[in-house]
Amino acid sequence: MLFGKQGNDDLVIRGARVIDAAEGVDEVLDVRIDGGAIAQLGTNLETNAHRVVAGEGLVLAPAFVDPHVHLRTPGREDEETISSGTAAAAAGGYCAILAMPNTEPVVDSASVLGSLAETAQAEAEVPVGLLAAITMNQDGAELTEMAELGDAGAAGFTDDGRPVVAPGLMRRALQYSAVTGRRLALHCEEPTLSKGGQMHEGAVSAELGFAGYPSVAESLMIERDLALAAYEAQPVHLMHLSARESVKALSRAQVAGVAATGEVTPHHLCLTDEAVRSLDPNVKMNPPLRAEEDRRALIAGLRDGTITAVATDHAPHARHEKEVPFEAAPFGVTGLETAFSALYTHLVEPGLLKLETLLERMSAGPARAYGLELPRIAVGAPANLVLLDLKGSRRVAEADFRSRSANSWLLGETVKGQVRLTIAAGRVAFEG
Amino acid sequence: MAEIRVMREDLLPPREPPRRHLISIGDLECQDVERLLGTARNFERSLERELKKLPTLRGKTVVNVFYESSTRTSSSFELAAKRLSADTMSIKSTGSSVDKGESLKDTALTLGAYDPDVIVIRHPQIGAPQLVARYTGAHIVNAGDGKHQHPTQALLDLYTIQEELGRIEGLHVAIVGDVLHSRVARSNIQALSLMGARVTLVGPPPLIPRGIEAMGCEVSYEIDAIKAADVVYVLRMQQERMAEGANYVPSLREYAARWGVTPERLRPGQKVMHPGPMNRGVEIDPVVADAADALIEQQVRSGLVVRMAVLYDLLTHGPAGVQAAALHEIGAA
Fold first, then answer.
1. Are strands A414-424 and A427-431 parallel, antiparallel or unpaired?
2. Does residue B10 fall inside a structural domain?
3. What pTM, to 2 d.p., does this model score?
């Protein structure tokens, strides 16, 4: 299901604090990698003439998995390509990413998916999973040939960017997705409630005069989709949760036995609608930044496991498209290269989230939501590792991005927690 | 031994002070408003003289860029600049490069190349004035950006109230109608609250934005609430913003019947204001519009001297502030 370069690198990482909660590991160890797989964990390991990376003072963890990336290819290669997007992912500590199908053309046929898979196999710095559309051209009218798309390697199905508006069609999609064994990932937005909305509806939108995109536009659709998922007994993954009501709805459904997972973005975890007062188009995204109570609920949901995945919703946009008044700017911000540092700086350092929890929600959590192989630090496992310098800081600057776009909400901000090395599929994909 | 010395910050040449703009009432303090109104009063006296032109801004250039139609705002800015002897240039979106799809950034860079001292901009999108401020060296005056702000309108309204009622502090002002789509309402809520007036918003629930009480005003859905006010400020029903099927109100007829400001709904002596252009018979009864207690013509007259005061203030004195700091941060990022 993942397409990209594979490696068989030999390496020894010496003396890092190795953290893998799922494997019950948290100690200072050497890790030896033979032929792209973890061969030995221990102290004072023989180097076997491998290259040695000094890990003293650093953290070594399973590399990250991003379940929500826009690679803009095909169609908008000026904004991102498979090669630039995956280079950005590698720099962000990712060993796998999932690409959204809302490209031009939409990934709604096995032929489009196949050609992307071929390119990714040759060019992707880290393996890429390809989601296919739920409906043809994401028009919300006719289902795609999900079975064939599944056979061609679709990692799941989504109309991300748009909701599946008609409940009857949503139900059919849930029913039919069962034959593929892949889950539906849902962008939940009730379009008549969000219509024209530029930002979260609340005191800030009232004062600034922006048309509001109320929380209930998201939570109402989430309630509907969870009700349908419960009725059809099918799993669903809820994308980019933003409102506290949505977290509550997800939690209630999970308690009731629905196989529902959820993801949340770094920007929704770090910012609120107050940020929009700057009128900076780089804080304009869909769903919008919401109130502080929403942010708190998202953090709490991530902490208690209602939400198990951090997703960047990395959405590159051409510079000239964001250099316009807020209202004219497209929705979306980049995130692959800044996700860990943003969350480490805004959540872990102030004590809102444990480092171990963050590492899990950026790696095993999202992998589990899509049934991908979990990155882990255990003998025999393929090397999917990230080496993190928690004390290292940097000022986020446009020139440093590997992504073709720089529409980051963190421009100019100094963040802590740097990626020093990324090993993806047994291959050193990034060193910084 | 040679040694490279790091130059100390205080040895560097002094930086240019931040440019001053008028983008939002929210950036002003009480003393800024008082100064502006005082300057306007002085200009009003000067206009009583036979020779109305003052040499104050001779050699300065004021560019008016209007991306939305406007009669009173654009004409009063142009006349204000001329009365102060500035050179003026007016650009409308139709018939300019905007028609050819030029971006606002590029238009700003083009106009900036002439080194204008002031750019007055009206634009349908919130944040357009900030964008122009980022890409030119001119002082920016917001003449209306989307539903966000119309600061000179609020200032001229304050001036009108001050002149007619002798004070602002302690007055009760009811703002009636389509608050949701009104930049005039937003600027006025801020301006009136800043100067110590009490503000009540009155209108149908879908046209009162959720959460607006946080700006320090009260809300009522009953038209009777205007009776308690000293000033009734009637907003235009913005039919051009009422997309078909939006259903903010079932019909203009029902709106007029329920929330129209009619003689019966007013109490004697209440002053009535309207930013224009009016829809007579919709939000305001023609009898009310033409009554002696209506200050609508005074508002237009105030517009000229207040805009003269704004141009004068930006280009001559007064403390820095007014968004400048925030804009510098964005520019640096």
1. antiparallel
2. no
3. 0.92
